[in-house]
Specification:
The complex is a heterodimer of chains A (281) and B (585). Chain A is an alpha/beta fold. Chain A is 38% helix and 23% strand. The chains are: A alpha/beta (281), B alpha/beta (585). At the A-B interface, helix 2, strand 6, helix 3, helix 5 and helix 6 of A face helix 8, helix 9, helix 19, helix 20 and helix 21 of B.
């Protein structure tokens, strides 16, 4: 399986954003990043704020402009795809965003939201609704949810709706941008379970960004670590989370506290020994 | 356990349609009826008006209501009722022209400005500003003077002149939602731009637009009547404004001739404004209910036995909370969001309050701090600090400065208008009565204590110039500036990166130990609890389900909910192995 053609191949990707308040100056938020995602695989992107992990997902989706480098999807360079080509790609490339409160149109019923991608593709309303009903079942929401508006749902339920919307066109790759970071712990676990279940059934590839190494470790086959716009490590999940080579990855791993008082005490001491901080008196 | 059972809220089974909601609103019904009557009256004027509105009877000049002229006669002996009926036409046509012109120009240019990029935005905004600077009433008077009393022309021009209001509103609203996640999700789904603009932007922002459209319509009616009142109208056109003008001539002989058109104009304009609000309320779903529904509480599970043991050390503890109940009004009744919660923290001790959203952990802490929202009521229990009971009613003012607070969102808890230094020193000068120089020196000390090296420089900075971690250090410096004995931290590291979190936790631990403070730490993260807490209370649905020392809770949790929460933690979960076909291995 490992020698398969990658589905998504990001080569030497650079993204610049205009600097705030500056005239024609640009800030490089992504600098020469190369990763690939194979069919049926989850690649986790981990990093702290400003690492560029969300930008990478957005560049793949065409929501952020690519300055240099290429994004190959199924062999085709889509980094500078036209608006019309982008609309066609919607059948294969989908997204689920972080904020469960902002990712659903408050003025549309769940039915309209979930069926919209199909309706846009010219599929009849009756057929789209039928598909939506099947999906509601798949994401474990009651079928009468379709008549409701987003404000009647909890954060976890909204994320299920967002997942249903992403799935309805049977895409080959879904970009999941921090999709569980706003959710409670137990809700988070359920959403991740659902996602992995769907992946096993459908073989969809996932590009999964998170700041939480625990989440990344649970869902990813391979993990890319980003630090200030650069790729510092990209390897199998075990290698990265158990025996990282890069010092920043080590720091990230050791900084996150574990729910075990005794082990956490040891980790804290070890962390301070390896990365003497500014604070400790 | 069921924390997030996938079930929709048990609200109304099917949402009533927008029309039904409009009709069920008394103000909506009233305004709809009034406006329908006015419109019908204007359309049917030729058939229902008892007299020709221009027909004058000499004996009816300034007449009181009588059998011939039911509402009396005007200054020329014409029938007031018939003139009222015919006059509605002018008002409605004028309003219609203005609103159509303003909507077409205002909404389309507003959307273009929000979308088409910088240059068109700048140009359109300039034009809008220039139009707003023109005094419209003077322009309209000039139009009347130059072209004669042509209502359609003048109202068309007024529509253009008033369109910048709609332009500005639409532009600002569209900019605020155009980067929302659902708009981007629609783009990714291949939804064409025009459809995005209508379905995902215009529909979402329609509430304020509808209200402004009603305002513009009402203004148009007023302006049209004012122009007529100034005597600019044609003698041949019957208008309410013109009727008021003519009524004024004979106001001492026949005051009623002013009252009738005035009343009708006022009622019509008022109905338009009310209808705008009612339509907005009927169309925009969930406007009445809050964006995020919280505080919904099911039957709380009662405190287990484990806590009681820990509680026995309570009475002498520095902070004790006993049987605390916090309620919010919900319709007629009160709903408890915190019910019978007890915990205690001693000096030199860190207590973690853990739970998921809606567990009541923040509400309990706000009750301790006296920072509960106005609607909340403490309906039971007692809070004592160092043996002395704290007042539970009223808003926070009675909290001794022996307690301090570190909030969750460092950025939004610093005032963007003032420098870091000012925000640190202001309370010291006011409460501790320090001089400016003393306060500054103290602030410098505190800043370097919380690990800020260039304290001189940071002192002068504004909040937007510092990072989130730095802002949290500043807030911690502020919290310890009054030498508190109890430090309450509400998710102090949730908004921060993990590496920064590690530093902030170290800082809090050092300060707590150094000053032997009692610390109350609210968090949802069991890693943070393991890192910093001595004791922990697990909360769910407004009640403490289990409490005890950290080692006991982590190693031998008794309550099924605690067990489930610990199990949900992903730490130590197996990794996935692609070569064996995915999934947990």
């Amino acid at each position: 399986m490992t020698d398969q053609q990658p589905l998504l191949d990001v080569r030497n990707l650079c993204v610049d954003y205009p600097k705030r308040g500056a005239w024609r100056q640009k800030a490089r938020v992504l600098d020469g990043v190369s990763i690939d995602v194979r069919p049926g695989e989850t690649v986790g992107l981990v990093g702290e704020s400003g690492s560029g992990k969300s930008t990478l997902g957005r560049a793949v989706l065409g929501l952020s402009p690519v300055s240099e480098g290429e994004v190959h999807f199924d062999g085709e360079d889509i980094s500078r795809a036209s608006a019309a080509r982008r609309r066609e790609l919607a059948s294969a490339l989908q997204v689920v965003f972080q904020d469960p409160y902002g990712s659903l149109n408050p003025a549309m019923t769940i039915r309209d939201t979930v069926t919209e991608p199909l309706r846009t593709a010219g599929i009849s309303r009756a057929e789209a609704v039928q598909q939506a009903e099947i999906l509601m079942d798949q994401v474990q929401l009651p079928s009468d949810s379709l008549d409701r508006y987003p404000n009647e749902f909890s954060g976890g339920q909204r994320q299920r709706v967002a997942i249903a919307r992403a799935l309805i066109r049977r895409p080959r790759l879904i970009v999941c941008d921090e999709i569980v970071s706003a959710l409670d712990l137990s809700t988070q676990a359920r959403i991740l379970d659902l996602l992995m279940e769907i992946q096993q059934e459908s073989g969809v590839s996932l590009l999964f960004t998170s700041h939480d190494l625990g989440v990344i470790r649970a869902v990813s086959h391979r993990v890319a670590v980003l630090y200030r716009g650069r790729l510092v490590e990209f390897d199998d999940v075990r290698k990265v989370t158990e025996d990282p080579t890069d010092p920043y990855t080590r720091r990230l791993l050791m900084a996150s506290p574990v729910p075990d008082p005794e082990r956490q005490r040891e980790r804290r001491v070890a962390y301070r020994r390896e990365f003497p901080g500014a604070v400790t008196a | 356990m069921s924390i997030e059972t996938p079930q929709a809220a048990e609200k109304t089974s099917v949402r009533p349609g927008a029309w039904k909601r409009l009709i069920s609103n008394p103000l909506g019904v009233t305004s709809v009826i009034v406006l329908l009557l006015v419109i019908l009256m204007s359309i049917l004027a030729p058939w229902i008006a008892p007299h020709d509105p221009r027909y004058a009877l000499l004996d009816q000049i300034n007449a009181s209501p009588n059998a011939t002229y039911w509402l009396g006669g005007d200054v020329s002996g014409r029938d007031i009722l018939s003139r009222l009926i015919w006059g509605g036409r002018t008002t409605l046509v004028a309003a219609l022209i203005v609103i159509v012109v303003a909507v077409v120009i205002g909404i389309s240019t507003g959307l273009v400005a929000a979308y088409a990029g910088k240059i068109s935005d700048t140009v359109l905004s300039w034009i809008a500003d220039a139009l707003l600077a023109i005094p419209s009433i003077i322009v309209l008077i000039a139009v009347y003077a130059a072209f004669g009393p042509r209502i359609a022309l003048s109202m068309f021009i007024f529509g253009i002149l008033i369109s910048p209001f709609l332009f500005r509103l639409v532009r600002a609203l569209a900019i605020s939602v155009k980067n929302e996640a659902y708009v981007e999700a629609a783009r990714v789904s291949g939804v064409p731009p025009v459809r995005i603009i209508f379905r995902h932007i215009l529909v979402v922002i329609r509430g304020p637009i509808i209200v402004m459209m009603a305002d513009i319509t009402a203004t148009a009616m007023t302006i049209q009547a004012s122009l007529e009142f100034l005597g600019l109208g044609s003698i041949n056109t019957v208008t309410w404004g013109g009727m008021i003008e003519q009524g004024f001539i004979a106001i001492y002989q026949a005051p009623l001739s002013v009252v009738w058109p005035g009343l009708l104009l006022t009622v019509t304009i008022g109905s338009v404004a009310l209808l705008g609000n009612a339509v907005r309320d009927a169309l925009v779903p969930g406007r009445a209910s809050a964006r995020r529904r919280r505080h919904s509480v099911k039957t709380p599970t009662r405190t287990g036995g484990a806590w009681k043991k820990h509680q026995d050390t309570g009475p002498s503890a520095f902070l004790t909370v006993k049987d605390l109940t916090v309620s919010y009004p919900h319709g007629e009744e009160l709903r408890n969001v915190v019910e019978g919660v007890s915990f205690s923290v001693d000096r030199g001790e860190v207590l973690g309050l853990v739970g998921e959203s809606g567990s009541g952990k923040s509400q309990s802490v706000f009750a301790v701090l006296g920072l509960l929202p106005e609607a909340a009521q403490v309906t039971g229990g007692q809070i004592t600090l160092d043996g002395a009971p704290l007042p539970l009613d009223g808003q926070g003012r009675h909290r001794p400065r022996r307690m301090a607070y570190v909030p969750q969102e460092p950025m939004s808890n610093l005032d963007p208008v003032y420098t870091v230094g000012y925000q640190l020193t202001a309370p010291m000068r006011r409460v501790l009565k320090l001089s400016m120089r003393q306060a500054r020196a103290h602030a410098m000390e505190l800043l370097s204590r919380v690990g800020i090296h260039e304290s001189e420089k940071v002192y002068e900075l504004y909040p937007h110039q510092v990072s989130g971690g730095m802002a949290q250090r500043v807030l911690i410096a502020g919290a310890i500036s009054m030498d508190p004995e109890l430090l309450v931290a509400d998710e102090p590291t949730t908004a921060l990166d993990v590496t920064v979190q590690a530093d902030i936790l170290d800082l809090l631990r050092d300060l707590q130990m150094e000053r032997n403070m009692a610390m109350l730490m609210v968090t949802h993260n069991f890693g943070v609890v393991a890192d910093i807490c001595d004791n922990v209370a697990v909360m769910r649905s407004g009640a403490v389900v289990e409490a005890g020392g950290v080692d006991k809770i982590f190693n031998a949790p008794e309550h099924p909910y605690t067990q489930a929460l610990l199990k949900a933690s992903l730490e130590g979960a197996p990794t996935r192995d692609f070569t064996t076909g995915g999934g947990h291995d």
